[in-house]
Design brief:
It is a single chain. This protein has 378 residues and is of the alpha/beta class. The chain has 2 domains: 188 residues, no CATH class; 180 residues, NAD(P)-binding Rossmann-like Domain (Rossmann fold). Helix content is 40%, strand content 20%. The chain is built from 15 helices and 17 strands. The strands form 4 sheets. Strands 5-4-1-3-2-13 form a 6-stranded mixed sheet, sandwiched between helices. α9 links the parallel β7 and β8. The two termini are 39 Å apart. 48% of the residues are buried. Bound molecules: NADP nicotinamide-adenine-dinucleotide phosphate. NADP nicotinamide-adenine-dinucleotide phosphate (NAP) binds next to α5, α7, α8 and α12.
Length: 378
């Protein structure tokens, strides 16, 4: 049986006070100071992950550093904390450790951490890419659009996950808009994409100006707070939010009933997985980055898999193949911690198409939308 550990961390101070209500009386800085002195700890044991071809057991382990601390503290401090947490994984008997959320973002995205540990390390980003693309494709299809007609914006386009999403979709979409913070990096990526393709590629460091141009958005930035607001979105837009913490503001849920926002990277896990912990996804499911670690353990493939910011298409295709082999699959559409029902989806699509028509934007024919509904069993 494969043995793994998956590293998590408190996304914010509120997630600590939700767990330990006595901490509510303390100011934010005091809670962060306490976290700074806590050693890494195991929070639960994971059992029941099983396919006809392999099994795995594991642990969730906590690196006690918030997202804000990851962004503010010196890199050597946060990388040291991640390595300490990796050593806990080793002591628990794990043969591969997955780096969750910002433990995978900090520094060189796992490379230094892997050099200092005796077990295999992965960020899980390869399977995250595969599932983000599959989820976005499914949502685009549901709305009745053809990928070849749409303008795709990727927010966080120069990052580990964003870059490979851009590379894998550049041959299929109509136009591309690359959004990030550093113009020079965006221009370099544009040059790489247009070198071998006839495609119009825009770059922008301004989310508010770039996104109203996009029909489909894959958002995967490492911003600590939401960066996509209701006024940034085109009617009928599809937004696949892969970032944790989320990039899409909660305000979008109440203010825009004409856009389809989906959480990227949530998958069903084969067997009867028991996390012994609320990981914020529906029963039997988990984040794709966690799933990548499980898949490597089920395969007993104890090698560093996804590290650094230059992912390859081959890595993504290979982990997707292994995931399908073991029965992992992308779940239906979820947004803001809630499963979208068929009637939610129909209402979004109807309103989205109406508002697009009103603004003189291309509206897909009803025929293609109905065909998808029949295909999806709706
Ligand atoms: N759903 C899942 O299963 C899953 C799995 C893994 C990771 N994630 C999440 O995915 C996100 C990205 O991970 P990553 O490993 O790709 O990170 P990364 O390599 O550090 O890339 C982050 C990207 O975001 C950009 N960015 C940061 N702040 C921004 C802002 N305010 N506006 C626009 N762009 C901004 C960065 O641009 P600059 O370089 O110009 O700053 C960079 O292009 C994180 O939130 C992570 O937690 C989710």
């Amino acid at each position: 049986m494969g043995q793994f550990a998956f590293m998590i961390h408190p996304l914010d101070v509120e997630s600590v006070t939700r767990q330990y209500s006595w901490a509510k009386i303390l100011p934010e800085r005091a809670i962060e100071a306490i976290l700074g002195r806590l050693p890494p700890f195991k929070v639960s044991t994971i059992t029941g992950i099983r396919s006809p071809y392999g099994e795995a057991d594991g642990h969730f382990i906590v690196c006690p550093v918030t997202t804000r601390q990851f962004l503010r503290l010196p890199e050597e401090t946060t990388v040291r904390r991640v390595v300490e947490t990796g050593r806990l994984a080793e002591r628990l008997g794990a043969r591969v450790v997955g780096l969750g959320a910002f433990t995978a973002v900090v520094g060189d995205a796992g490379k230094t951490v892997a050099e200092q540990l005796d077990i295999a390390v992965t960020t899980g980003n390869s399977y995250t890419v595969a599932t983000a693309i599959e989820g976005a494709r499914n949502a685009v299809e549901y709305m009745g659009y053809n990928l070849s007609d749409v303008t795709l914006a990727v927010v966080g386009a120069t990052g580990s996950i964003g870059r490979i999403c851009v590379q894998m979709l550049a041959d299929e979409v109509g136009d591309l808009v690359l959004v990030g913070r550093k113009e020079a990096d965006l221009e370099a990526l544009k040059e790489e994409i247009t070198r071998s393709r006839e495609i119009s590629v825009g770059v922008s460091t301004d989310v508010a100006r770039a996104l109203p141009e996009a029909d489909v958005i894959i958002t995967v930035s490492s911003a600590a707070d939401a960066i996509i607001e209701p006024e940034h979105l085109r009617p009928g837009a599809v937004v696949c939010d892969v970032a944790r913490p989320r990039d899409v503001s909660e305000r979008v849920a109440s203010a825009r009933d004409d856009v389809l926002v989906i959480e990227g990277g949530i998958v069903s896990v084969p067997g009867e997985p028991n996390w012994s912990l609320d990981i914020g996804t529906p029963r039997g499911t988990c984040m794709a980055c966690m799933a990548e670690t499980m898949i490597l353990a089920m395969e007993e493939r104890y090698e560093n898999y996804t590290l650094g910011r230059d992912l390859t298409v081959d890595q993504v295709v290979e982990i997707e193949r292994l995931a399908k082999h073991h029965g992992f699959s992308v779940t239906g559409f979820r947004a803001f911690d809630k499963q979208l029902s068929e009637s939610d989806l129909r209402a979004i699509r109807k309103r989205g198409h109406e508002n697009r028509r009103r603004m003189g934007l291309h509206v897909p024919s009803l025929d293609s939308a109905i065909a998808v509904e029949i295909d999806s069993g709706g």
